[in-house]
Amino acid sequence: MSHNEETPRKSGSNPAERFADYVPSIESRDIVSIRSRNGLLIDGAWVDAADGRTFTTVEPATGEALAEIALGGTEDVDRAVAAARHAYDSVWRDMPGAERARYLFRLARLLQDRAREFAVLETIDGGKPIRESRDIDIPLAAAHLFHHAGWADKLDLAVPGMRAAPLGVIGQITPWNFPLLMVAWKIAPALACGNTVVLKPAETTSLTTLLLGELTREAEFPPGVLNIVTGAGDTGAALAAHGGIDKVAFTGSTEVGKSIRRAVAGTPVRLTLELGGKGAHIVCDDAAMDQAIEGVVDGIFFNQGHVCCAGSRLLVQEGIADAFVDRLRDRIGRLRVGDPLDKNTDVGAINSAEQLARIVEHVEGARQEGCEVYQPPCALPERGWFHAPTIVTGVGGSERIAREEVFGPVLTVQTFRTEREAVDRANATRYGLSAGIWTEKGSRILWFANHLRAGVVWANTFNKFDPASPFGGVRESGFGREGGRQGLQEYLTLAPVR
Amino acid sequence: MSDGIEIRKTYKLFINGAFPRSESGRTEPVHGPDGRLLAHVAKASRKDLRDAVRAARAAQSGWARRTAYNRGQIIYRLAEMLESRRGELTHELTRTGVDGSVADQDVAGAIDAAVYWAGFADKLDILAGSVNPVAGPFLNVSATVPPGVCGLVAPARLEALVSMTSAAIMAGNTTVVLAGGDVILAAGTLGELVATSDVPPGVVNILTGIPADLHGWLADHEDVDLLDVSGVPDETRRDLETRAAENLKRVSATAGARDLSTALAFTEIRTVWHPARIAP
To answer: B5 in a domain, yes or no?
Structure first.
């Protein structure tokens, strides 16, 4: 074919150039209609904030305004908690589990019915690649609702010998990295157990949460069972410190998690915290190289690295380190960074200008501390917030880039000689959320799993999530679990059956 | 014959398997209800607390790696030791002013608690762990792991002191225990029982004195992973929990209740995604 003759590929040349003629495949926005003004969901109705305040949500890929959203204040939190309390006392607590289950199954089905719409909206509002919102966020959110719906009439089986009862009104605060998925993780077990909820989604990514709120109306949930109070940090702080709730469940930064811990100190309010991480990703010299490369790339560049359990610290065994890092550099040169709605896109938009500035500052700091920063040549879109996939080598371990959570597409590389050394380096962090290990030797997997201080350990895989599998951290990554029977128990009081 | 003149026991701290006096050189005079001096009990200082935390940290991973069966055997040995010194423990409680029948009951409860937790060790993962049916080709296992070093502020009852300590070490933790008030003498003797129960040095450390002088340091300590505030008055809990937020210590108030909730309070869950699964 003449086409091939005209455009011979220069192997090893600039990857951006190599893919320059890649045909975009843009997912249509038509399926989504975004309301210009969005209210709070309180007691089953959409209402404005009591003081009428709003804030603007912005599309990260363009920097353009998407919609106005009600900015919930103390009075709104009061109203929402009162509605949740009333719904708890009057209907939801005493409803037979089988009936609660039907509402949740209904909600799961409605979400599946409109999955495409949710995926496009999630990508527009948050900046993540459509491939991920379509294949991971939305299906997993539906799976969490479906899984927990089935628990609602089986709570007394969750812990044999213990009678299960709900806690009451739950205040839940979700992050911007997996907006709808984190909402599903939180509301599904809470509601299945017979609690009612006041939910505060992240400021920059409220839209899919609000659409889910609309689905609870379509599903004819009793008013007040799920209330949504949108807003910023102050709104969340007002919810966490509210005297009328029985539990706070928070996913977000360690810093905010500690402030919530202080806010509920000395009260009977229960608390689960799913906070930051600095996950170690260990590659041994016997690992299956192709898979390990893909795993490490997925571990850090999935969702632009906006992942609390990201494998942000690569620890690679000395004998293969140079070759592995070479291949990694080559591989990230083939990642497509750009329009999140393009189905080819691997790395989408950074969620906000503030987060982009934070990432840039971290990378600059790494340079100043003497690390070597590699970024493949790739053309970033001219508008919106984007960051090239980045690999930092020459890292000792004491640098900020090696210790602090970057929450962006930035991987540090360290090497190790012995397994003991790998574990020591992996555990040299105040966090303890996730870790990954790549080796073909089964006994080595379990040795590492036993020695790594982390709540979740992935072996020959990474960033896998499932509603049946408990997720959560140790140390300063927080406490409590989400998912599985252990996660369910966080929303129950248990009393021995006498 | 000099039988009439009692050989008084010197009540000391129990740190890392040894019985030091407080490094501060300070003691707490303990009197009976009749005002008679019973003993100058070693009064733990902040430095003693740091030493105890360091011993607990050093002992933790080795203790956690023992089999659950072995930990159970050792805690049962502790129950045997408690039983063999039942009279002495009861006497120590009554001497400090505890009513006789209450003291009898308290010591009996302490022995029961040790037996209960001895038998719990190899049930913990059956009750709290799981194999999870994830939608993919993985063996997904959730197993219990101990938070690590536990600071225990026990109520002034021997049963609670023994039960909290036994529950914590049953799950693979190591402990720094603050004890005072009515159990101050019995807590000194408890160290001797632990020392003769094959509990490795550092797994249980007992600091006698005035718990309220020390619990703030325990809440602050960056190398303590969990704080049980059962013995802390309500008005002080807020301060301790606020201080515990600095390194996100887990905070519990189990009072050593003999149930699954107490076991879970001393436990965390680690989930491993292992490639390939067990399936039909």
So the answer is: no
Minimal Cβ distance to B241: which of A266, A474, A481: A266
Residue B256 lies in a domain: yes
Give strand ranges (E) for A390-475.
390-393, 410-416, 434-438, 456-459
Q: Classify residue B118: in a domain, yes or no.
A: yes
Candidates A376, A434, A378; CA nearest to A405 is A434
B239 shares contact with chain A (CB less than 8 Å): yes
Residue A227 shares a structural domain with residue A337: no
- Could you tell me if B133 lies within 8 Å of chain A, comparing CB atoms? yes
Distance, in Å, from the CA atom of B258 to the CA atom of B115, rounded to the nearest integer, reads 11
Q: Is residue A394 part of a domain?
A: yes
Give CA–CA dist B39/B19, Å, rounded.
16
Flag whether residue A481 sits within 8 Å of chain B, measured between CB atoms.
Answer: yes
Q: What percent of chain A has pLDDT over 70?
A: 96
Which residue in A122, A132, A274, A482 is the catalytic one?
A274
- Compare CB distances from A496 to B142, B242, B259 and report the shortest one's residue: B259
Same domain, A447 and A334: yes
Give A 273-292 residues with CB within 8 A of chain B: 273, 275
Put simply, the chain B residues between 209 and 238 with a CB less than 8 A from any chain A CB are 225, 234, 237-238
- Cα–Cα distance between B265 and B150 in angstroms, integer? 11
Q: Which of residues 49-108 of B touch A (CB under 8 A)?
A: 65
Active-site pick, A59, A132, A203, A308: A308
Domain of residue A122, residue span: 37-275+476-496
- Give the ipTM of the model, two decimals please: 0.94
Number of domains in chain B: 1
Name every residue whose Cβ is closer than 8 Å to that of residue B94 and which is 6 or more positions away in sequence: B100, B103
Tell me which residues of chain B have a pLDDT lower than 50: none
pLDDT-based confidence at A5, cuts 50/70/90?
A: very low
Question: Is A62 domain-assigned?
Answer: yes
The verdict on residue A7 lying in a domain is no
The token duo for A247 is: 């539990």
CB contact under 8 A, A457 and B245: no
Q: Which domain holds residue B250?
A: 38-275
Query: Would residue A75 show up in a list of annotated catalytic residues for this protein?
Result: no
Mark whether A455 and A484 lie in a shared domain.
Answer: no
Same domain? For A289 and A166 the reply is no
